[in-house]
Amino acid sequence: MVVLDHVTKVFRTGKTPVRAVDDVSLRIGRGQIYAIIGYSGAGKSTLVRLINGLESTTSGTLTVEDTTISGAKEPELRKARTNIGMIFQQFNLMNSKTVAGNVDFPLKVAGWPAARRRKRVQELLEFVGLGSRAKSYPEQLSGGQKQRVGIARSLANEPSLLLADESTSALDPETTEEVLGLLKKVNEELGITVVVITHEMDVVASIADRVAVMENGKVVEEGNVYDVFSNPQTAPARRFVSTTVKPTPSGDRASELIERHKGYLVSVEVTDHTDLGDVLSKLGDRKVRFNIVEGGLETLQGRTYGKLTLELLGEISAVDAAVEQLKLVTNVQEVRA
């Protein structure tokens, strides 16, 4: 659906050029929910503006469903954008128009006849759960309802690609869950490819199939969401994962645990491939006892990942042997102050 081949975007508004997107290559498959995650300034919002042609690439090639966006003239871009829906963080609704009027607007611009527009608007409002609010105005709606109107509007022209730029960051957790559920419904029932731009790891975990991690304009890690979450390879990815799973204790926290526990403390990685239970169940045979000190496990796409900090108690030689057995099935780190 979307192919980026060595795409770069440089802004030259001041004395020092800013490389907002730096040599990014990505392939976003048709029918996927694809997340692009990064902290503020990572380049993710610029990247989405390149995909919908609101910014032009400095170099590289960007293609959306066989249409080359990079280097395209405005008439070609306008045609391409009819196939791309956009959802915004701040909703971007027209306060002077009703809910139905907001959804109708892109259809009117596209030249749809009135009867067909009315039918399409009602279909979309029913789809997003706002069939009874057609005559309401944005100021009468909650944040979640406003975003539902935004989603309905983005679907008006029957796009095959939907771009959601921080579409839940202005919402409370419960409303966020509802909106993410609606985006998943859009993907599954309408077959629309969804690209989610976010700085929230929970959003990625909730709905995405694949994820790209951005920092300083570059994609530093990319892959299946479970693989990136359970075994992050880069520092930025590990920082994001640490917001959902407790990392190996360090610093003051490690000192506190070492002071409180007499045994040998290790942090072990848990994934659905880890045969950790078998090793732990046999520690008694080695005259080693263990306690789970802290940690946490998460379930993602029906698979488990996380970390546990264990206290191992017994003779030094037996504990050392137990650690070597653990290393055969998982990553093991000593807890140090």
UniProtKB/TrEMBL annotation:
Which SUPFAM superfamilies does this one have?
Answer: ACT-like (SSF55021), P-loop containing nucleoside triphosphate hydrolases (SSF52540)
Tell me the function of this protein. Part of the ABC transporter FtsEX involved in cellular division. Has ATPase activity.
Give the quaternary structure.
Homodimer. Forms a membrane-associated complex with FtsX.
What is the name of this protein?
ATP-binding cassette domain-containing protein
- Is this entry keyworded Transferase? no
Q: Which residues form a coiled coil?
A: none
* GO molecular function annotation: ATP binding; ATP hydrolysis activity
